[in-house]
Model the fold of this input.
Amino acid sequence: MEKVKMFYDRTGNTLTVWFGDPAQEHICEETGDETILIKDSNGTVIGFEKLNFSRNHDQNVDVAFETISA
Done:
């Protein structure tokens, strides 16, 4: 199973999640809801960035992932 990498930038107020190799980033596409899809050269989504992400610093952020077989 691939590793999921998450980065929270307090200064930029963004959350970036990678489920592919960040070095393979080729193009980004904004979805219109303050979410940017990060794609490789084949157009496969390898991560996303959530703009204006905020959370209460006293609470944990719960994250759940689901995989599907191709």
The chain has one domain: 1-70. Residues 1-70 form one domain. The chain has no helices and five strands.
